[in-house]
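Quarterly update, task 2.4: S-adenosylmethionine-bound model.
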Amino acid sequence: MSEANPERAIDRGEGTEAGRSAHSIHFDIFTLFPSMFCGPLSESILKRAQEKGLLSVALHDIRAYTTDRHHICDDTPYGGGGGMIMKPEPIFRAVETVLTGPPGWQLAPEDAFVNLPPWDPETPAPLPAEVPIILLTPQGRRLNQAIVTELSHFRRLALICGRYEGVDERVRTQLVSDEISIGDYVLSGGELAAMVLVDAITRLVPGVLGYAEGAQQDSHSPGLGGLLEGPQYTRPYSFRGEQVPDILLSGHHGHVARWRREQALLRTLQRRPDLLQTVNLSDEDRTFLRRHGWQPEMGEGEQERDADQ
Ligand code: SAM
């Protein structure tokens, strides 16, 4: 895990009241490009989650928290080199103002730049310990379903989106409590990464998905014990010469469940044999996998080659 400010390190929620009961979730997102979020938030599951009162998102324009004439949010790096770095003051001011205000508070558009609540650049504001302040960065904890589940236990999360060459280091050392990467590649900004987080977390909030068990049966999820989900079919029965496996039409729930388990095992063996090392496998699972070439003692590359044959 990345070393975000240890003073801001927080209880990850599993054992808290919020971690146990049904709840709605609120995101405060700090960005230079708030309108990037409009599309994802106004369609499908995220739209319905907001309509049901299970999700709320407040978009905070970091630039609105500048008071200089040109509303500057970035500057050249000390020590030289190309690119620009996001300045600390607008980020600190935005985050500290919002998180010390009442939940859901947002700066009115007409107050941007000119009518900001008082803020002291030298004195850290008392931030709420129960709200993780997450910096999206390619240097953070690499996101997976376990981290998504952990974060879904919180009721309120703050997400900071970087731009340019990233944020001034003091944001990391003094403001954030967690750093998340959505993968080992570099985006132009944290906005898309924040959207990924909002989507993945929100679908775990009870009541958000129409078919609640669905989220438990997805790849990487607890219902499948961390396996990948096997193949799925819907009508028509026959399409371009390929038929739905007859077992799915048998009406025998036990046989269908076993077939699905075996397909999930097989798919995981073929695509992500590394995952099998942490999955809880029954003796029956192990026998099945061995029949398909699984050799737990084998290295990952060899396993993949074998399973594909
Ligand atoms: N210079 C930075 C570095 O090497 O770590 C990368 C800066 S990147 C061009 C600009 C911003 O995009 C970052 O500050 C971060 O907010 C976001 N970003 C880029 N890749 C990301 C990733 N894989 N996961 C999360 N955020 C990412």
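Highlight for this quarter: The pocket of S-adenosylmethionine is lined by residues 136-139, 161-163, 165-167, 181-183, 185-190, 193 (CB under 6 Å).
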